[in-house]
Each structure stands twice: as structure tokens, then as C-alpha cells.
Amino acid sequence: MISIDDRIVKTDAGIFSEMLGHKLLSYRHDPLMYSQSVYGIAGLFLEDRSYAVTNLVEVRDYYGSNEDVAIFKISQEKENEIHSYVQGETFINTPVNQKIIKVLVINEHQRLFKHEQQTYDVRLTRGFIIELEDGLQISFEKDIWFSEDINISRGYHLEKQLLPTNRITDEWENPFRLTCEREIITFQKSDML
């Protein structure tokens, strides 16, 4: 059996904890044209730091063959290094000006079976949701495995509006079967309850 672990929380849990209690000034991304998705990168701008949210292709083992697989990441970057990957495009800026009180990270555990014998054990981060002082949430979610799109939404109870797992599992046919379970990890300071 092959195990793959591309979860953000496994390596970057500190980033989400560091955001708590800090003011999110704005987030930036390419203009939303026909959907709620942007290509490859979005930026989060806090009072004293900025983060790039990326979903870029890397050649990886995708259930038995080397494929272009989009890998979802977040990293602290200088503000001027966070910009559109589309030539000639300029980010739009969405002001927020509220403290981050909670971050929900959505991880998936995918298992591939062939003739009912497990062949792959894959863990990845589907996305994360930032919750603000007034209860409004902003989510950043990777699309399906080969897509570099990042879906961005604003609203409430966004964890209930994520890409359904059957969109991932239903593409497999006999003798293969893929299962997908989700786990939500919550980062919240106890003094902010």
C-alpha cells in the first residue's frame, strides 16, 4: 500500500494559530468572472504579515500514474510577492478589517481499493475557513485533483457548502473504489470564546 500525506496542518499548523486574534485587513485575488474560483493564488493581508494561498500543479503519483496534481499550500510571504499568475491581470482587493477568531481546516482521508484490497492511503487538505468577529466566514478551497483553481466564498456555515465528496469518489469504476472521509480541525484561542 502506498501512503501520501499532503495536509497543510501536518506541516503548517503554526500559521493558522498565528492568525488568531489578528486583524485581517483584506484578501486579494484575480477578478471573479464566471465562478467563485481563481487561478492558482490568493493573498491574505493581516496587520503585520501576509500569506499566499496557492494551489499549483506538481508532478505526483496520482493513484498509480505520474500526473499533474494541484497541491494546496499556505505560506507567509512579502506583500509585493503575492500577485496574479495571469499575465496582465491585477488583483482585486476585498477589505475586511476584522479580527480572526477561528480557523477551520478541512482535511480529507482518501482510500483507494482495488478488488477490495486497499492500495492507496492519501491525506490532503481540501481547504480552510476563516471566521471573523461578526461571524462572517471566508473559505479557500481547492478544486478537484488536477485543477489549480481556488474556490473562494463568503457567508455562514461554509463547511456545509464544500465540494461534495461524491464528486471525488464517483469517478471510480469496478474493480476500483475510493472512499473519502473529512475531518475539521478547529484553531481557536480559549480567551476568544
Short descriptors:
193 residues; mainly beta; 2 helices; globular
Describe the fold and architecture.
Helices cover 8% and strands 58% of the residues. By secondary structure, the chain is mainly β. Strands 1, 2, 3, 4, 5, 6, 7, 8, 9, 10 and 11 form an eleven-stranded mixed sheet that branches.
Secondary-structure topology with pairs:
Elements: E1 2-6, H1 8-19, E2 23-29, E3 37-39, E4 41-46, E5 50-62, E6 65-77, E7 92-114, E8 117-132, E9 137-142, E10 149-155, H2 166-169, E11 176-187
Parallel strand pairs: 1-8
Antiparallel strand pairs: 2-4, 2-7, 3-10, 4-5, 5-6, 7-8, 7-11, 8-9, 9-10
What profile does the largest beta sheet have? 11 strands, mixed
Percent of residues in helices: under 10%
Low-confidence stretches: none
Per DSSP, what share of the residues sits in E-state strands of 2 or more residues? over 45%
Specify the number of helices: 2
Radius of gyration: 17 Å
SSE arrangement, N to C = EHEEEEEEEEEHE
Mean pLDDT: 93
Instruction: Kindly report how far apart the N and C termini lie.
Output: 42 Å
Entry summary:
The chain is mostly beta strands. The protein has helices spanning 8-19, 166-169; strands at residues 2-6, 23-29, 37-39, 41-46, 50-62, 65-77, 92-114, 117-132, 137-142, 149-155, 176-187. Strands 1, 2, 3, 4, 5, 6, 7, 8, 9, 10 and 11 form an 11-stranded mixed β-sheet that branches.
